[in-house]
Amino acid sequence: MSNLLENLNPAQLEAVKTTEGPLLVIAGAGSGKTRVLTRRLAHIVVERKAEPYQILAVTFTNKAAGEMKERVSELLGGGVNSLNVSTFHSFCARFLRNESHLIGYDSNYTIFDAKDAQTVVKNCIKELGLSNTQFTPKAQMRKISECKNKLISSYDFAKSASGYFEDATAKIYSLYERRLKECDAMDFDDLIYNSVLLLKNHETLGAKYRNRFKYLMVDEYQDTNHVQYLLMQYLLGAHNNLCVVGDEDQSIYGWRGADIRNILDFEKDFPGAKIIKLEQNYRSTNVILDAASAVIDNNEARKGKKLWTDQQGGDKIQLLLVDTADEEAVEVVKTIYNKQVTTSLKDTAVLYRTNAQSRAFEEQLRRQSLPYQIVGGVSFYQRKEIKDIMAYLKLIVNTKDDVAFERTINYPKRGIGAKTVSDIALIARRETISMYEVIQKIDDYPEFGARAKRIKPFAVLIEKYRTEKKAMAIDLMTQDLVEDINLIEELRNEDKIIGQTKIENIEAFIEGVAEHVKKNVDAALETYLAEISLFTDLDAYKEIDDKVTLMTLHAAKGLEYDTVFLVGLEEGLFPLGQATMDPMALEEERRLFYVGAPRAKKRLFLSTATTRYRFGEVESIPSRFIKEVPSELVEKKDRRHNRRYGTGSHSNQPVQQSFFNRKPAMASSQPEGVHYEFEENEIMKVGRIVAHPTFGRGRIVKVDGMGESLRLEIMFSGIGLKKILAKYAKLKIVG
DNA sequence: ATTCCCGACGTTTTT
DNA sequence: CGTCGGGAAT
Question: What is the pLDDT of residues A136-150, one digit of tens each?
């Protein structure tokens, strides 16, 4: 197995061979980080320093964990199942399955996703009688999450809270915690938070795990937050064998509590730590690296590192200037289309700052019949129909899960209205039992009259599957359940067209369960649910298909493509909104650019539009990041119809443009500063034939309002009458 | 209980 | 254009 140490540059070799004591590996983009991590792990095993199960390696995504596991397994000649390579969240979830009884949780506790958690917060705000405009679930959830990431309990928070707003948040936080506990549920943050508390407060437990793991490794260390940092501290035994790999310049999760100090202070935290820098890049051309380096050089908070490559030169970076987001998509797709001959589609990616930007590209790619896939956005497991069926399964596993109860009790319809549900909730609170328990004993509560009859079958149904899940393969059980509740029928009735895709999703879900069963005979529903609760869309992504990939910059981390289009480089979009005002946030945006650019191996395209719709139509000015790229590395392509603005010039007079008046304006190449005040109705009048991106062709039958609030009623062939707000619908006039 | 219509909101990034 | 909540109609 001596080949473990072959084909490594000196720094990489050093990192692989340094197995003892604290080690920080600073790994620039494309510097062979994964190679080092996997070789190092395999090296420890081969040298018999530890058994595979005594090594713990943590990453952030399931995908990264899966890859690492696979590659280590290959290096070791396969068949090694006992490797502990997992994400922070899944490691903790498993840990808690074994140990959560110590904090009063059942081992079959439920994991609430972000949306479930927010629903609970919303209910708490309502229950406390607080104004839901002053206290939005989103903002409160964020504060709670922030606390948990810093290991601040609701109790601690309440103690230090001052003023009306903080007091209210404290109340929401503690009620939220109580509700979670009552549901036997944890949110994402709890998984790590509770694990840390357990290790901290139960000395014997801590000792057990510290004894067990002889080597710890953390990938993407720059993205760890405080609790994650603590988790590693509590797992780290006296041997001090902690290896962290990261790159402070790639820290892009500050908004999720990632604490860049973890990596910056590593030497302070672990005296005598060895530091190895991997600075040779094996991925991108010199041009691309120079551009990325030049931009990141504008940041203050960094250790300083210089990436280099021996691939000299390379294609210049193409800067594309266009008028609108739509034309940006047209130009990008045109370029992809022409490049197909030289670059296969699977080696091409379009990266953007926000998911909302994907639409225009999707539309154009579809128009050109170029296959594409979107990574991220609405994940499969977040779709309504999937969450619905999962809610049934969750309730079957954990009847205390009131969120699942409320989701399933009247879907598909059983004639149980809001009133009955809130009555059930009230009694559940009063008796401190779960909502499900209330309906099980419904006859005991005189509050329910004849209505109770309608609820009973639901309890019978759930009980049936609680028994069935013990005796039956879970894929067959799920299939049964779907038939039992008539879900397919229900979906078909809701909407003919949309229903069909939902039905397909349900079928795909069942297929997924079946696959899981194939891999794990006797698979338990409990563990399967736990697993998929931590899945993301990213994890399913494979680069096998020959498709163009569309995703956010965040999602692109760790991936690489021959050709990359970095789009929407405009002030306010990238860097995004508030970040332009806040220096720290701006640095994070800059790091995001630094993460994104070297995703390109050979060719990098940047693009900017001069107008873009974001909350009304606003004029965009080019991103400062464009100016930070040395101009000799850039080739400019101006595809604007109306070149009123230079690349860097600012127009202090925003041009009021709506979708409708823009078209004629462009055609007639107007001089600067002209306002195009068309009477929209001139164009959008009854009888006109228009094309809608999703509904197809249709005829305008009614026009209402004007300007921003112009409303149209359009009769679409095959679909029917639709009411549409013209401001948003991307309509084209056809006749 | 359910359905439908209106207005008000909203967009970062994700385990 | 989505989702959500409120309120009225059925």
Answer: 899 999 999 999 999
Tell me the average pLDDT of chain A: 84
In the 54-113 segment of chain A, residues within 7 Å (Cβ) of strand B are 60-62, 87-89, 113
User: Shortest CA distance to A499 belongs to which of A510, A507, A490, A491?
Assistant: A491
Note whether A571 and A622 are within 8 A (CB).
Answer: yes
Residue from A599, A602, A603, A612 carrying the catalytic annotation: A599
Q: Lowest mean pLDDT of A12-16, A426-430, A550-554, A715-719, name the range.
A: A715-719
The answer to whether residue A715 scores a pLDDT higher than 60 is yes
Which chain C positions come under 7 Å from a protein C-beta? 1-2, 5
Q: Is A33 a residue of the active site?
A: yes
Rounded distance between C-alpha atoms, residue A287 and residue A632, angstroms: 10
Query: Is the Cβ–Cβ distance between A640 and A610 less than 8 Å?
Result: yes
Where do runs of H (alpha helix) occur along A398-446? 402-408, 418-431, 435-440
Give phi and psi for A718, each to the nearest 5. Answer: 80, -15
More confident residue, A555 or A665: A555
Query: What mean pLDDT do residues A410-439 have?
Result: 89
| DSSP state at residue A280 | B
Q: Which two tokens stand for residue A587?
A: 């640095």
Q: How far apart are CA A459 and CA A30, in angstroms?
A: 55
Which protein residue lies nearest to nucleotide C5, measured between its Cα and the C1' atom? Answer: A132
Tallying the residues shown for chain A, one arrives at 735
**pTM greater than 0.90 (yes/no):** no
The CB-based long-range contact list for A525-530 (8 Å cut-off, 24+ gap) reads A525/A393, A525/A396, A525/A397, A525/A469, A525/A474, A525/A477, A526/A107, A526/A108, A526/A397, A527/A97, A528/A474, A529/A110, A529/A111, A529/A390, A529/A393, A529/A394, A529/A397, A530/A93, A530/A97, A530/A111
User: Residue A576 gets which letter from DSSP?
Assistant: B
Q: Taking 60 as the threshold, does the pLDDT of residue A478 lie above it?
A: yes
| Helix, strand, coil percent values for chain A (each to nearest 5) | 50, 15, 35
A734 pLDDT band, cuts 50/70/90, is low
Contacts of A121 (CB under 8 A, 6+ apart): A137, A140, A141, A144, A172, A176
Amino acid identity at A264: L
Residues 6 or more apart from A530 whose CB is under 8 A from it?
A: A93, A97, A111
Our measurement of CA A256 to C1' B14, in angstroms, reads 8
Pairing of strands A634-638, A689-692: unpaired
Residue A687's pLDDT band (boundaries 50, 70, 90)?
low
pLDDT, residue A544, reads 66
Tell me which residue of A597, A604, A611 sits closest to A644, measured CA to CA: A611
Q: Mind listing the pLDDT tens digit for each residue in A632-685?
A: 999 999 988 765 444 333 333 333 232 222 322 222 222 222 222 222 334 556
Q: Residue A598 and residue A250: Cα distance in Å, rounded?
A: 11
Instruction: Kindly state the tokens that stand for A16.
Output: 């692989």
